[in-house]
Design a protein that fits this description.
about 450 residues; mainly alpha
Amino acid sequence: MSAPDRHLPRSITVLLCTGLQLCFGTVYAWSFFQIMLVSQLGWTYTDTAIAFGVAIFSLGISAAWAGGALPKLGPRKLSVAGSLLFASGYLIAAFALHINNLLLFYIGYGVIGGAGIGLGYVTPVATVAKWFPDRKGLATGIVVMGFGVGAFLLSKLLAPFLVVQTNEDLPLTFMWLGIIFAAILIPFSLLIRDPPAGFAPNTKLVSVPPEPFGVNHPNFVRNCLSTREFVMMWLIFFFNISAGISVISFQSPLLQDVWGLADPSLDPHVLAEYGATLIAISSLCNGIGRLFWGLLSDKIGRIAVFRILLASQMIVFGILMTERDPWVFSVLVCYILLCFGGGFATMPSFIIDVFGARKMSAIYGAVLTAWAAAGIFGPLYVGYFKDVYPDRAVIYCFLVGMLILGLGFIFAFQLSAERIRLQKPSLEETLRQYGIPFPKAI
């Protein structure tokens, strides 16, 4: 057994990668801070939506780059770089809040912090997939579950504690968050690594299909990105994320609006606590959904899971347009987060099924640009409705969400799970594909 394998069992790798995702996933608790930013600094909901949108856009773009760079740089370097950027983003954001500079906040929290998340996000997912070729859906589901649960960590533990300790001083809160995340992320990042060459788990469950023909061609990834399969994957990923992230970015203010209509006598601090509770519970659903749908996709297939995710959410969004019972509203929001997480758990395995495992990180990184686009589109249209149509924002937000989910559902029927064949293989490639040595010329 090689040294890397001896010192870093794959079970430990899962724990380390999940820990990284827990910290990076705290970005989904953004709506915890929104009302405080609006009330203390005089920012609009559109201003706060832009900050979150820039973070997600930067995340997606940097993840796309990281996917291509991962094979060259390795998981450790990318994770450390992502950790430093993420923590630095919070520290810069703290200073921006101190001087009330919105543009600097966008740069710190949005561009720098979001880039750190992107570098850190793609690395654990791709790395754990290499360690678990026998249970791709389960392994990637566990790791991305950490990203979903991260909002619980921030909204119910770290942020409320720091807000109380700092007497609601947001600059100090953001400063301490940067310090805490650096202290956790950097040591974890230094420990993760790829499996040793020739690694294969000792289990009879391993059944890895051969890589697609042409995988060694220098233009393989570029050719994959131009296929119909990739375009359809990108689109349904974009629509599923857009719907979910629109809810994530404003779930606390939206719930407070619904509770305020149900009981106008409620104190604003009580409403804020209700909003934080919804963030926490929905984040658990986000995490559980990543595990549940990842396991289910191993059983019934990736395409079937995406069709269920999109179709069921269309119904839920339709109900939420007119639902004003805060308890029902909260349950339905939690289901949306369950489905939102399911898309992230299913897509990495789907890419491996269609394009093979060898170039997975580069292709998955490119798919994550859909996350970047959705991160701008989803929060901004909700922020616009909150500012311009505050009395009808809930109706308009869920109407748009229902429409984009419908588009995703249509595109899901254009997908195929068959392994691609980008070029006709040579005799040498065919023999090597199945482990048959190619005879050398005499």
